[in-house]
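chain below, 214 aa
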Amino acid sequence: MGLLFILPFFAYGIGSAVIGSMLEGADPLSQVIEHRPRYVAGALLLLLNSATVVGIGVLFFPIGRRHHPDIALAYVCARVMEALLLTVGVLFLLSILHLGEGARGLGASGARELLTLTTLLARGNFWAYQLAMLVLGAGSVAFCVLLFRSGLAPSSLALLGVAGYALLALGCVLELLGLPVGTLLSLPGGLFELGLGGWLMAKGFRPITRSAAA
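prediction:
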């Protein structure tokens, strides 16, 4: 299960970087058409991330419900909602691919309209991502509290998760309000997921004493 926490970190990071590199230029539609296989590969990595986060919630549920059934269920729901929102974002990005295919033979006016649609679809992906991370942050604070109370993870790591996911949710709200601080505020949550993934690969979800958690 530890690998499932680490894999999405890299899958979404690489996928979004690949797609973002083509959408940030002056002529994104031409870039999408010219590098279609790479664009599709980036979208598939984003979809892999969506499938993986659902797997995290599903696999944790039978473990978490022994300690707090309500939190375990809420965590599964948060992960499923996160995956659905991220998938909607990927559909927006794949729609840009179809716009690029229809751009051939259009005049300057038509090209400008397609560029405007491309910008709107990219913005739709941005909103879907921020809402997904807001859901993840809110749902995962309780998840980390469960880890702390049950001793399923070191207390210092669980507390990092509580702070990290709270900052992630705050960063999403600020991003939606137009303040570009989400990346910075997501760093503690990212460190937690990498740390928890490494811990699980080495130890697994086994209750530990507080002395061992220190």
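The two ends are 23 Å apart (CA to CA). Residues 28 and 37 are 15 Å apart (CA to CA).
thats it, cya
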